[in-house]
Amino acid sequence: MIWLIGCKGMLGSEVAKQLDEKKLPWIGTDREVDITDPQALIDFTNKIETAAYFPSDLRKADRKIQWIINCSAYTNVDKAEEEPELAEKLNATGPLNIARVARSIGAKLIHISTDYVFDGQGTAPYTEDLPKAPLGVYGKTKAAGEDAIMKEMNTYYIIRTAWLYGFDGKNFVYTMTKLMNSHDQIRVVNDQKGTPTYAPDLASVILRFIDKSDNAKSFFGKNSAPAYGIYHFTNAGQTNWYEFACEIYRLGRKFGRIKQECTVNPCTTEEYGAKVQRPAYSVLSKDKISKSLKLKIPEWQNSLEKFIKSDRFNP
Ligand SMILES: NC(=O)c1ccc[n+]([C@@H]2O[C@H](COP(=O)([O-])OP(=O)(O)OC[C@H]3O[C@@H](n4cnc5c(N)ncnc54)[C@H](OP(=O)(O)O)[C@@H]3O)[C@@H](O)[C@H]2O)c1
């Protein structure tokens, strides 16, 4: 049994969809089981054993929670500066509570983290072993969440991602599409580099960790399951927000999502005047995850095209 926490969020809803498609036994919770309340998490794991939660044909053995996937978080980067206590509760205390419960029931944990744990002063893709140096409240609280998990348990996969967009949630692609349909000129910063991540691509990687671990074969005592620890995942390639917006415009026009002409103008972060300092360079190295899971990571432009073309696209 897989327990998906944050199942109604942008990434969580995508993981839920793929768990259904793969017919894996899972149960999802969101705000109704508050991750900041340790007792609520414990109570839930106790209740899960009861028939009330499941169709009676689900075997008792399948009710044991073997995996927890945590997609819940405080994700509003700007607002986190005004609500640091709440961000801390959700991004640091929440993962600590989840890790404690996971350890107590012997479950493995997959937790999602962010490129914002780095300061973005780098010039080459960030590898997993580089020291964290978060700039703002969001990054600091996410970094604290990672630390709490690593201190509390050993059987975890922390997946750091960046520039996430998906069907069910506020994201850059939807925001740009709406702006381009209502303005003839927009400005987008061109001095922050990174790589977009299509939520369905990340969801399938999360499921691959589970599949690779559960179906690991032992050859001469060697386990082929991916080693526990931190992994980076985004789509392949790199870009900046301005170029990303230009590609959204091109594809949006091509597939009828953007109904009018709009000029996309580049500007600097300083000219734009954002409230929170964001990493200038946040490209993550995917070498470790590609090797461990034998992945061929889709290029960001190809995944963006899939998103914009999809029937589910609904900005
Ligand atoms: N979005 C990005 O660009 C981005 C980039 C890098 C990393 N990430 C990471 O990726 C993960 C998924 O992000 P996302 O964008 O899919 O997040 P999201 O859409 O904000 O989803 C988070 C979910 O957690 C729920 N939640 C809030 N408080 C909770 C609580 N106390 N207990 C249980 N659930 C609660 C939220 O409910 P409400 O909606 O009702 O608040 C929401 O359904 C996060 O760990 C995030 O830090 C995201």
Question: Can you describe this structure?
Answer:
- The relative contact order is 0.15.
- The protein has helices at 10-21, 38-47, 77-80, 84-105, 137-152, 172-180, 199-214, 241-254, 269-272, 287-293, 300-309; strands spanning 2-5, 26-29, 67-70, 108-114, 156-161, 164-165, 185-189, 193-194, 197-198, 218-219, 222-223, 229-232, 239-240, 263-267.
- α1 (10-21) crosses α7 (199-214), α2 (38-47) runs parallel beside α4 (84-105) and α6 (172-180) packs across α8 (241-254).
- The protein has a single domain, classed as NAD(P)-binding Rossmann-like Domain (Rossmann fold), CATH 3.40.50.
- It is an alpha/beta fold and 315 residues long.
- The chain contains eleven helices and 14 strands.
- Helices cover 39% and strands 16% of the residues.
- The strands form five sheets. Strands 2-1-3-4-5-12 form a six-stranded parallel beta sheet, sandwiched between helices. Strands 6-9 form a two-stranded parallel ribbon. A two-stranded parallel sheet has the order 7-14.
- Bound molecules: NADP nicotinamide-adenine-dinucleotide phosphate.
- NADP nicotinamide-adenine-dinucleotide phosphate binds at residues 6, 8-12, 30-31, 34-36, 71-73, 75, 90, 112, 114, 142, 161-164, 169.
- It catalyses: dTDP-beta-L-rhamnose + NADP(+) = dTDP-4-dehydro-beta-L-rhamnose + NADPH + H(+).
- Its EC number is 1.1.1.133.
- Pathway: Carbohydrate biosynthesis; dTDP-L-rhamnose biosynthesis.
- This is dTDP-4-dehydrorhamnose reductase.
- Pfam families: RmlD_sub_bind.
